[in-house]
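Service request form, structural biology core

Requester: graduate student, group of Dr. S.
Request type: structure prediction, single chain
Budget code: on file
Notes: please return the result as C-alpha cells.

Sequence provided:
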Amino acid sequence: MPLTPFDEPSQVDPVEGEVTLRGPGAAGLSMTPQAARETAARLATAAERAEEGHAERIDLDDPDSLTRWAQRLDVDIGTLRDTISAVGSDSEAVAQRLAAARGPTD
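Core staff response, request fulfilled:
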C-alpha cells in the first residue's frame, strides 16, 4: 500500500565519516559515503520517474515483492510472472494488461 508522502526533505549530515539521514517522521539511518552517493543517485532517478508518472517496478527476483503484487492485483504468482514477461516489470503496465485480460467489469 502506498504511504502518505512527506513534502519536507530529510536532514542529511556527515558524522564521524558516515552520512546520517534524519526525518521526516521517524526515519533515520547512517550509511557509508559510497552508499550515500549511490542512494542519492537512485533518489534522483526515482524522483524524475515519479514526476513523469512512472509506476513502481515489480522485482521478479524478490519473492516478497511478487507475493505482495500478486495479492494487490488479485492474481496468482504464475500469472503475474507471465504478464511481466509479456509487458515488462512496470506495475502500471502489468495492471493494465491484467485488467484487459479480465475484460469489462459489470
